[in-house]
Give the backbone structure.
Amino acid sequence: MSKKLALITGGTSGLGFACADKIAQEYDLALVYASNDDKAINAKKQIQVKNPECHVELYRKELKGYLLAKELYGEVCDQFAKAPSILINSAGKIRDGLFLNMDFSVQDQMIQEHLTTTLALTHLCLKEMYKDKFGRVINFSSVSAKYFKKGQVGYATVKSGIEGFTKCLAMEVAHRGITVNALAPGLIETPMTQDMVNNLREHKLLREKIPVGRAGTPEEIGDLVHYLCSERASYITGTVITIDGGRSLGDNSV
Ligand SMILES: NC(=O)c1ccc[n+]([C@@H]2O[C@H](COP(=O)([O-])OP(=O)(O)OC[C@H]3O[C@@H](n4cnc5c(N)ncnc54)[C@H](OP(=O)(O)O)[C@@H]3O)[C@@H](O)[C@H]2O)c1
C-alpha cells in the first residue's frame, strides 16, 4: 500500500516544519510556504537526509482565499497522484496593532490567510477523505483566542473562528473516520516569536509570564501532532488542545 500524503501549509518553518519533521517517517509530504525559498529548500533537505524514503515536494504559494487553495490542491494531487489524507493548516502571520489605527485591509488579509484558507483547503481535502473513510485535519489556533491582548483583534478573531470551525466540522465528519482538531499553543520559540522570546529572556520575564518558566519548543508541538495523525488518536475529535506551559491559566505575576 502506498504511503499516505500529508499537506502542511507553513510546513517549511516553525511549528509546521516541526510537524513535517515528526511525521516524515510515515507520510509523504507536500509543504507549502509563502516566499522564503532558501528556508524551504533547507527544510526539504533536512527532512530527506533523515528520511530518504519520504517523498517531499515544496509549493511556493502565498495562500489567501479559495482560488489559490484550489490551485494548490490540484497541483499537489497531480504531482503525487494521490490526495492528502492529512491536512495541517499552520500557515499565517501575526499583524498586531490597535484596531482603529490599522487599515482595514490588514484585517481582511488575516481573515483570508488564516481563516478562509483553512476552510477552503479543508473543504477541498474532505471529499477524498470522506471516500477513504480516513482523514486527519489539524488546525492552528492560539491561546490568543481566549486570553486576549490589546492590539490583537484580527488575530483573536481568526483564531476564534478556527476553533468554532474545528468543533462544528468534527461533528459532521466523525462517522467517516475523519477527525478534526485544533491546537492552541502559547509562546513557542519559532521565527515568528523569536524577538518576543529574546526580549522576555533578556528581562528574565519568562518565569513570571509562563508557569513552567520557559517558551515551548516546536518539537513539543510536533510530537502532539504526530500522535493526532495516527490511527491511535481516532477517538479524539473536535477538541482544542492548549499547549502553553500553563500560560492561559491566569496571571502568574501577582
Ligand atoms: N509560535 C507560536 O508561539 C505560536 C503560538 C500560537 C499560534 N501559532 C500559530 O502557529 C502557526 C505557525 O506559526 P509559526 O510560529 O510556526 O510561524 P513561522 O515560523 O513564521 O512559520 C510560518 C510558515 O507559514 C508560511 N506562510 C506564512 N504565510 C503564508 C501564506 N499566506 N501562504 C502560505 N504560507 C505562508 C511561512 O512561509 P515563509 O517562511 O516563506 O514566509 C512559513 O513557512 C500560525 O498559524 C500561528 O498563528 C504560533
Observations:
- The chain is about 45% helix and 15% strand.
